[in-house]
Predict the structure.
Amino acid sequence: NLDMAGDPQLDFRRQALNDMLKCYVEIDDGWIRARDYYEQYEGVDLMRQQLERLGNLYDDQGKDEDRVALLDYFINRFDEDPKIPQWAEGVLASLTNIGDWDRYEQQARNFIDAMDANGPWALKMQRESETRALTNARGMTESWLLGIITRNFQEAERLSDREISRALYVETAADYEDFLRRFSDSNEVYDQTFFYAELMYYKLVHDDD
C-alpha cells in the first residue's frame, strides 16, 4: 500500500512516485506518459490514484485543457465508476475556466444524459447501492440543466437578431420540458413551471403582440 507509513522504503517509494508527478505536470501530454508508466509498472489502481493527483496539480496550475483531457480519459475508460459525477464536475469546472460556452454546453448535455436516473450508469449504481454517487449525480445534473436554461434565456434576451433569438427561446422551452420530465420531484418544479409558461406565452405564442 503506497500510503502506508512507518516503513522507510515505502516512504522513499511514495516520495519518488510523487516527485515524478511534478515532472509529468510540466511536459506536454504528461498525463499520457504518466498513465502508460504507472499502469505498466504499478498497475491500474495506482495509475488511477496518481493520475487523480496529477489532475489536481493541473487544476492548481491552471492547466485546464490537460485536466479536461485526463478526466475525459477516466470517464470514457471507467464509464461505470461511482466517481463519474466528480470527474464530470471537474471537466465542466475546467471548461468554465477556459471560457468556451459551446464546449461546456455540449459536454454538460452529454453528462446529463449519461447520468440520467433511468440510464445504465444510474441503474448500476442503484444495484450496487452507490447512494452517494446517485445523490451527487442528481444534484449536479439538475444544476447543470438549470444553468443551461438560464444562460440561453439571457442570451436570447440580449440578442438583437430576432431569428436567432427565437431559436434560442425554442431551445430553452425544450430544455424546460426536459427539466420537468427528468426532475419532476424537484423543489424547483413550481418555479420552473411558471417560468416555462411565461416563456411560452410572451416569447413564443404572443411574441408579435
